[in-house]
Task: inverse folding
């Protein structure tokens, strides 16, 4: 049996930009992506603490150490600059893999720096 578990979480990210004219996705500072092990173009779930929106998209890497969190394309309608969001990434694991399982979680400050 496989179980779908939280593999990575970026907690309390602040939306820094919004680009409705992009074809879609979520731009995230590459330093943050590397810290939690999320790969470019990997699927993520996003939860907006300000308006309750919850949506799936994929990530693209932003400039390292820039703090960028940008809602692109249709996701730009799911939040506003300054909103706090949580980014989740899930993966399927076997029962054996779960014996030593632990998700990678980072918490961000108001400037999207890892604390």
Result:
């Amino acid at each position: 049996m496989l179980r779908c578990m939280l593999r990575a979480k970026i907690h309390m990210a602040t939306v820094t930009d919004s680009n409705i004219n992009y074809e879609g996705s979520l731009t995230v500072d590459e330093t943050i992506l590397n810290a939690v092990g999320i790969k470019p173009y990997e699927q993520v779930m996003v939860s907006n603490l300000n308006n309750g929106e919850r949506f799936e998209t994929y990530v693209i890497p932003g400039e390292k150490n820039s703090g960028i969190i940008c809602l692109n394309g249709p996701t730009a309608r799911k939040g506003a600059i300054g909103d706090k969001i949580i980014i989740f990434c899930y993966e399927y694991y076997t029962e054996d893999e779960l014996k030593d399982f632990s998700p990678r979680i980072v918490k961000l400050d108001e400037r999207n720096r890892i604390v």
